[in-house]
From TrEMBL:
It comes from Acidithiobacillus ferrivorans. CDD domains: IGPD. Its main location: cytoplasm. This is Imidazoleglycerol-phosphate dehydratase. Belongs to the imidazoleglycerol-phosphate dehydratase family. Keywords: Amino-acid biosynthesis, Cytoplasm, Histidine biosynthesis, Lyase. One of its GO terms (molecular function) is imidazoleglycerol-phosphate dehydratase activity. GO terms for cellular component: cytoplasm. InterPro entries: IGPD_sf, ImidazoleglycerolP_deHydtase, ImidazoleglycerP_deHydtase_CS, Ribosomal_Su5_D2-typ_SF.
Amino acid sequence: MKPRQAEVERNTLETQIRVAVNLDGSGQAELHTGLPFLDHMIHQIVRHGLFDLRIQAQGDLDIDAHHTVEDIGITLGQAFARAVGDKTGIQRYGHAYVPLDEALSRAVVDLSGRPGLVFAVEFPRAQVGGFDVDLFHEFFQGFVNHAQVSLHLDALRGNNAHHIAETLFKAFGRALRMAVAPDPRMAGAVPSTKGTLTL
């Protein structure tokens, strides 16, 4: 399998973002989003997905974090889509359950070529570490729309907002890791009866 790496730069009047991803990495991260709690969450994706990821982001955080979080999700999705390529020889589907103390979350992903997000998550409070938890939905929506994947995220239980968020991101990383993993029996073939997983 050829190297699965990509780098994407996105520049708007609201944000300037550069993302580099290696799907066959070892869990190394360089994250500079200006949002420490978001860095902490994205690091969970990297560590549990065993990707290498660099994100350099500058945004209009003086207004609020919305544009920056959404655009990081968009740019990461674009980089992921480029890195995974035509999806020949991969598992395609991935799933994971992750607990953390009282919290339990599930992530299920299909690298289908079609964007879709089900975000069945309720947080017991509005902020964690000064971060607006509503923005997690915007991050995942941006990723899904531009990675062209179907993603179901379910917070099954939990009463600590930090624990819930962390289990979501860990489960997401592990589900992606499973989905992009090579499938020796699918070598040379796209895992779809259509013969393609691109639009």
